[in-house]
Design brief:
mainly beta, four-stranded antiparallel beta sheet, three-stranded antiparallel beta sheet, 1 helix, 9 strands
């Protein structure tokens, strides 16, 4: 029991805020990142300037339909964000300080590959 509590405590410490808030930006403008369910095993990710008022742009490539409210909605990030979106576990991470060029590192990132369901 003690070991379990210790691991939980260490996990909470590992995701503690760094104190540095990073603004989400798109095309060098303040932006909002919304992640919402689009189906049982799919998500819709929208990155839009804060001046764009609709929930997302209209596009002929997607059928018109109603979407759920975003499970994750960010205009800034200072720590790792985890949420269940539909049946998927989503994690958004602040950019690391490893990059020396500001333009090389996005404010948020997520894995580009996912393990196959089995």
């Amino acid at each position: 029991m003690f070991l379990r509590m210790l691991l939980i405590g260490l996990g909470l410490f590992a995701v503690a805020p760094t104190g540095r808030v990073q603004e989400i930006r798109a095309n060098n403008q303040p932006a909002q990142l919304d992640i919402r369910p689009a189906g049982e095993n799919s998500i819709r990710v929208t990155l839009k300037p804060t001046t764009f008022k609709p929930d997302f742009p209209i596009t002929p490539t997607l059928a018109e339909r109603e979407y759920a409210a975003p499970s994750i909605s960010l205009r800034e990030i200072s720590q790792q964000i985890k949420a269940k979106v539909g049946r998927l576990k989503i994690e958004v991470l602040p950019r690391s300080n490893r990059s020396t060029k500001k333009s090389d590192s996005p404010a948020a990132s997520w894995p580009t590959s996912c393990p196959t369901a089995g």
